[in-house]
Amino acid sequence: MKNNKYAILIFFFCLSLLIFWLDQSSRLDSLSYPLRKILAPAQVLSSSLFDLVRSPIRTVSFLRSGEQRIKYLEQRNLELISQVQEVKDLRSENKDLRKQLGAGVSKFHLLEAGKVLGIERYLEFQVNNPTVKVGQSVVYLDNYVGRVVKIGQGIGYVQLVTDPDSKVPAKTDSATGLVFGQFFSDIIFDKVSKSDALTVDDNVLTSGAGGITAPDLVLGRVTKIIPSSDDLFQKAQLTSNIKMFDLKEIYIIVDQ
Description:
Elements: H1 2-24, H2 29-102, H3 105-108, E1 111-119, E2 123-126, E3 137-140, E4 143-152, E5 155-160, E6 167-171, E7 176-180, E8 187-193, E9 203-206, E10 218-226, E11 233-239, E12 249-253
Antiparallel strand pairs: 1-2, 1-12, 2-5, 3-4, 3-12, 4-5, 6-7, 6-9, 7-8, 8-11, 9-10, 10-11
């Protein structure tokens, strides 16, 4: 048994020496070419099989990376759209603020801006300052929007001049009365004495009587004198200078 082991070792040792001698003497070159020719088809086949297996893996990897890139680009696009909208909103707010600062009411009152959140029955706005309180008048430029009737959880609620429960003491250059809301439609200048002069295109302002509103805010313009059988009072239809549903920013008179 031991002799067999030695014989195998001697054989491989001799074979190693022979291969080394053949390589050093360049005699293996004549054998390598036929060997490569015999093994070439197997190499080509194995390479093709490797590419065949690797190709779907590369395809799946490419598709996954493409999906990730698409998702990233979509997310980035949404972020850019949001940033563009923020810039537009800031520009709009700055434009409104410049207009408001140039309005007459801004010269006589301390104002606090409020971003409009929406309108149902009441106009809802974001409250950012504790100086905003119930009962204060709300304006846009020199126009009366309404009055704050409720504040809660950082949101203020404005009873609009068009609300049917809104009653605002009002005046023109030659008449006094009350302006009543008509629920998001035209407003009515009522309880005007028949002895007072009232004509189309008269500007109607808040009178400030009773401290309900700040004085001299624009309520609207007389567009129609409404016929009445009342012997004491007359009334007129008014049109506001502002569109309530288009408001993005309102201003609260906090020193009222």
